[in-house]
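Subject: complex prediction, re-run

Hi both,

The earlier run crashed halfway through, so I resubmitted it with identical inputs.
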Amino acid sequence: MIEKSATDLTREAEFVAFRAGGLEFCINIMSVREIRGWTPATVIPRAPSYIRGVINLRGVVLPIVDLGVRLGLPGTEPTARHVIIVAQVGERAAGLLVDSVSDILSVEDTSIQPTPDVASNLARTFVRGVIAMDGRMMSVITMDNVLPAGMELEAA
Amino acid sequence: MDPMAEIRLTFFQECEEQLAALENGLLSMQEGESDSETVNAVFRAVHSIKGGAGAFRLGALVSFAHVFETALDKVRSGSLVPDADAMKLFLRAADALSDLVSASRDGALGDTAPYISIEEEFNALIGGGTAEEDDLSGLDFQPVVTAFEEPPPPARNAYTIRLRPLRELFAKANEPLALFRELTRLGTFSAHCDIKNLPFLDTFEPEDSYLSWELHLESESPQSAVKEVFDFVEGDCDLAIDLRQPVTETAPLPQEMDITAILRKVREEAPAIAATAAAAAPPQPEAEAAPRNKAAVQPTIRVDLDRVDRLINLVGELVINQAMLTQRVLHSSHVRDREVTSSLEELERLTREIQESVMAIRAQPVRPLFQRMSRIVREVADATAKDVRLRTEGEATEVDKTVVELLADPLTHMIRNAVDHGLESPEQRIAAGKPPEGTVKLAAAHRSGRVIIEVSDDGQGINRPKVLQKAIANGLVPPDAQLSDSEVDNLLFLPGFSTASAVSNISGRGVGMDVVKRSIQALGGRISISSAPGQGSTFTLSLPLTLAVLDGIVVTVDEQVFVIPLTAIVETVKHEPSRIHHMGDHSFVLRVRDVLVPLIDVGAELGVRAPASDLRSGVAILIETANGTRSALLVDNIQDQRQVVIKSLETNYMRVDGIAAATILGDGRVAMILDVDALVGLRHHDWAPAEIPLAKAS
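This time it finished cleanly. Structure:
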């Protein structure tokens, strides 16, 4: 949850705005490592439906999450015009398959509103807040729960 | 980590190196190389450990190292002849020193009795040691080059030593006082401090060094012994050791001067002092000799393994990229430009060279590993009252660091086995017409891109009737089985097999050869055995040079590419529908000659396609899992056999059952490496391993 800054100074953060599953989202630029075009992924056996597989990112085996499917939205049939946002999740890195990246926004803390109570459990898991500016509304995605749950346990 | 703990850690790391050097030297001495170089190296190792231990107030370590050092010093000076018994004592002392270092590191000094008993043996040795002039020719310590003729002992030598420490000396936590203390032990010692260079307080640098000393020492010790005191400060001070009659005129003590006098004198003498310093600075003949002694030790740096691994990853990536680039350039251009082609070839050559060099960083000689084994041999030989000599060959053979580390346990076990089970007692050996001393040989060599390690003994060989009897008793083979010799030998690798009818406390530690085999396979290696009755047995390990790559065959399943590790593969089998039998519930068996093995449809097993009700197309690959059971994997196609770079899937994702790791193929795409054991286990965990009659396996 976003806490409002107690000080008079408003803090600004930058967000990468993108579209996935037909909706607009954004993600804090600090957790984005790079943005690259779609390349076919190698299927991982027995992976959840939202894991598109793994790709080779300069020697690193990077899992690709179809963000739309992960959020319960219609799936994407990726083409060369689709985009992978390479994001850092704690110690790990993962690629988010999205439709397109639109722009980079500078947003003040105060204009990020907490996720409304009406939101579904799924939304609460991935959405940290909502940004409303210039007549647009975007969910702020948090990477924490994007990869399969219980991964740490299974990996141990 | 607090700085002290860090220094302490470094000390113990260095101890490891010193201990290795010590053992190495002692083993050379045992082989008869008792030149002063070797003896010196041994002495220096113990001396360094003692010195460091003193700094950390590790009393037990200091006192033990001191006794050890004293004995070695006797050898060095020629008053003690290192005969076979003495060498055994030295080797045992080296083992004990190693234990003591570990105990001191862990702060768990247990029973000190073994150390004390060795100390007593040393004292007896030193006391009883007699110097025989005739035998000393090879041992006589030759002092390093000196400009002066050395009067024969016991005449006392008069040394004049000029010592001007540089600030580096203090920065390295050395101090002159410690050196002086050491010198006082050599003989009559006096020191005169020269404070001429001491500046006034306003220009005084607290961390700089201003003092110098003129030291006078009368001692029986040779010049080299005096020089050795300064071993640790070499390069950090201006040092001149002169062997001569005491200088008669002594400079007036500066303390007696008043400040103006000092000032005047400094002004007058400044050029002269500079000249003296310049004269002292260029390496003296003896100062040059010392580094030459040390040149045998290659300079090394400590680097985090992570950094090396990062470099290896990057270079692996470079190789893949270079291959892709070449492929694209050659495909895209219609004109075959010779210059482009040759540049690309040059690039390829360079990339390969970089890759090899980078891989070589992780490579380490097997020598330390082999040295550890010599200790195991000594211990087991003592416990079993056998006379055993360990011969090693190819200690310089280099293998990946991790492979070396992971080899220690299986190798220890095999060595124990060789001494305990392989070799006969001295009496039995004599009765069999063999020398009473048994030999265990440990050899390493590079052969066609792999490392071959052989453990062999000249003992009784494998008692095949006994092995077979035992296997039958344990229900591992049917009572009427007719096994070939090599099949009987391979029974040793079956789980739950132990030849020792009475489990001895040497080999019978609940670890069988099956565990050895499994750990070797986990390293991507293979193990084989050969034995001749009455002549001995040989275990041969074949290991990959590195864990970063793996030999595998590239297969396709439903257009997905997978890699099967070559170590697991027995053969590919001609696929004929008539040999396949459907057992229902999507279970199939394949008849390979006269044996039925489970046939696993890789695609269905991994969930990349639905289970088929009949398996008509594809290629079957016969594999053997770590526990010795065989299965056949059904794939669509075999593409290629190649070496692939192993990439972790767990770094960014998680473990997947049936998948060992990932790799990146030449076209830059990721492929999964199958975990054959898990794949077989997934479906057939309820299959008993005994369903395959081994007897008909050939």
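The domain at 367-544 of chain B is CATH 3.30.565.10 (Heat Shock Protein 90).

- K.
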